[in-house]
Amino acid sequence: MTTSNIKAVIQWDIHKVWETVSAVERYDTWRSDVIKTEFKGEKQFTEYIKNGYSTTFTVTVAEPNRRWELDVENSHIKGHWMIVFASKGSETEIDFTACAAAKQLSTRPVGKSIFEQTYLKKVQAQFITDLKKAACCT
C-alpha cells in the first residue's frame, strides 16, 4: 500500500470548506472530473468521472469542520482517504492523506508503487485545484 499526502490552504473559512467537501451530491458543480454522484446508503456514495469510470466511497469518520475519512474502492485500487481541516482565521488548511493499493497490476512491488503514487498524487492535486477554484469563484 502506498501513502500520499498533500497540504493546502483554501481561501475560505472552515465552515464553507467543510460544507463544500462533505456535500458530495454537489460535486458535479465544482469538481472538474466528476459528472455525477449516486448515494448507495447513508454513508456510501459512488462518484462517476467524465469517462464513466466509477469509484465507491464509504464514510468511516465525519467530524464536522475537523476530519473526514473514507474507504475508497474502484476496479483499480482499494484504500483509505483522510482529510483533516484546520481553521486559520478566514482561511482553512487541509491535510489530505490518501493510502491505496493497486488491485490489478502484477505483483512486482515497484510497478505497483509507481502506479499507486501517480494515481494518488493526480487525484489529490485535482481535488485541491478544484476546491481552490470553487473558493475563489463564489
Walk me through what this model shows.
- The chain has 138 residues and is of the alpha+beta class.
- Helices cover 30% and strands 46% of the residues.
- It has helices at residues 14-22, 27-30, 109-136; strands at residues 2-10, 34-41, 44-49, 54-63, 67-73, 77-88, 91-102.
- It has a seven-stranded antiparallel β-sheet with strand order 1-7-6-5-4-3-2.
- 22% of the residues are buried.
- The mean pLDDT is 90.
What is the secondary structure topology, with strand pairs?
Blueprint: E1 2-10, H1 14-22, H2 27-30, E2 34-41, E3 44-49, E4 54-63, E5 67-73, E6 77-88, E7 91-102, H3 109-136
Antiparallel strand pairs: 1-7, 2-3, 3-4, 4-5, 5-6, 6-7
Based on the model shown, name its key terms.
globular, 138 residues, seven-stranded antiparallel sheet, alpha+beta, 3 helices, Alpha-D-Glucose-1,6-Bisphosphate, Chain A, domain 4, 46% strand
